[in-house]
Amino acid sequence: MGCCDVTGLMPLEEGLNRLLSAVTPGTDVETVPLTDALGRVTATPIQAQAPVPGFDNSAMDGYAIRLADLKNDQVLPLQGKAMAGQPFEGSVEPGHCIRIMTGAPVPEGCDAVVMQENTEVLDAGIRFLETPKPGNNIRRAGEDIEPGQEVIAANRRLKPVDLALIASVGCAEINVYRRVKVGLFSTGDEVRQPGEALRYGDLYDSNRPVIRALLDRLDVDILDLGTIPDDREAVRDAFLRADVDCDFVVTSGGVSVGEADYTKEILAELGEIEFWKLAIKPGKPFAFGRLPNSWFIGLPGNPVSATVTFHLLGAQAIRQFQGTGPRPLPRLTAKATTDLRKSPGRMDFQRGQWTTTENGIEVTPSGRGQGSHILTSLADANCYIALEQDRGNVKAGEEVTLWLFDDLMA
Ligand SMILES: Nc1nc2c(c(=O)[nH]1)N[C@H]1C(S)=C(S)[C@@H](COP(=O)(O)OP(=O)(O)OC[C@H]3O[C@@H](n4cnc5c(N)ncnc54)[C@H](O)[C@@H]3O)O[C@H]1N2
Ligand code: MOO
């Protein structure tokens, strides 16, 4: 197939659908303490046993009163004190008020709290400078969460504030799915590690650092097998090693049609290719398949292609296995500020910077070019300019669809 031959390429949507229906969520569950739960995916829902707040309490430092007691002079003698953690005990005598602090239980019978700033301390008691409405400054029991309420659903990736919510209902341990294990390696005789000297024709392995970092953000365990030379046996060994221990094997390079492109060949030998070659640019030679024990994600060697295909496809496959399901990127319509070159046949994911201007939302291509070796185009971007498969060149001012970068890429 020549570089411009687009026959037999699978549209992105079809590839993604096939990948998502092939990957079934993992089922192994473990229990972790709340402190270790960030980024994990819940296996069971979490329900509140008791209301939150657990009791009617004061929203302000001030005085708790019975509204009916406020007479013309608005002065009530002070009877006692309610502090957070030290409730007022006993019953409030008619015509009295209680000093109360934020978070302290509102004494029974009191139906409003007046903040300190709206009162005056006299020898005879407290003068109220306002007449509050019933319930003023009282936070009701169960206002946030009712008993029995589901506060966290199953199959949710826990974010920082979820941990607060879970703590607020007193839950100390959480059932989560086992962490996904991902084996990772780059291939290529020319691929060196940063810090090493380059021979003529070599380049540095930029794929592994970015894919590792993206995997970290997906909260997986990584088995990093490094860079494997273009040697059939070495690539085969790396595949077998990763497959034994992992749920996914992610590689970069060797999926094209070159003479040392063994990745695809070995996948066909050890497992099964589900699909290879998508109608997208960059990333045409993306491969997805099944190994004896794991799923295979074969990223193209070009750095932009590897990163974009991992973002659009690989990460979705991992989320599917993790149980959260895929997370589509949000989309926006914008005006292109410049002409964009585009050949019909593949869907383009050009890299761009979108901004809101007085003319609406505009997008400008990022980097010094859109080649799949131009990493700066991706580093300077905050979105993809997603140009439909059949679309041709775009003129400045035309509308284009943006796929916005999510927190994985931002
Ligand atoms: N005859 C054809 N040639 C190519 C086609 C095609 O359809 N027909 N597709 C092109 C496209 S598109 C891509 S993308 C690449 C994908 O090739 P491979 O996945 O086989 O990758 P390599 O050939 O090993 O490398 C491509 C390119 O990327 C550099 N590379 C590889 N690994 C890394 C790494 N870890 N970090 C940084 N850069 C890396 C490598 O040196 C090459 O320059 O194939 C096209 N060819
Ligand atoms: O489609 Mo390749 O992944 O552009 O360089």
Automatic annotation (TrEMBL):
Catalyzes the insertion of molybdate into adenylated molybdopterin with the concomitant release of AMP. Residues 183-320 form the MoaB/Mog domain. It is an enzyme of class 2 (transferase). Its EC number is 2.10.1.1. InterPro entries: MoaB/Mog-like_dom_sf (IPR036425), MoaB/Mog_dom (IPR001453), MoCF_biosynth_CS (IPR008284), MoeA-like (IPR038987), MoeA_C_domain_IV (IPR005111), MoeA_C_domain_IV_sf (IPR036688), MoeA_linker/N (IPR005110), MoeA_linker/N_sf (IPR036135). It comes from Saccharospirillum salsuginis. Keywords: Magnesium, Metal-binding, Molybdenum, Molybdenum cofactor biosynthesis, Transferase. This is Molybdopterin molybdenumtransferase. Its cofactor is Mg(2+). One of its GO terms (molecular function) is metal ion binding. One of its GO terms (cellular component) is cytosol. It catalyses: adenylyl-molybdopterin + molybdate = Mo-molybdopterin + AMP + H(+). It comes from the Bacteria. SUPFAM superfamilies: MoeA C-terminal domain-like, MoeA N-terminal region -like, Molybdenum cofactor biosynthesis proteins. NCBIfam families: Glp_gephyrin, molyb_syn, PRK10680.1. The keyword Magnesium applies. SMART domains: MoCF_biosynth. GO terms for biological process: Mo-molybdopterin cofactor biosynthetic process.
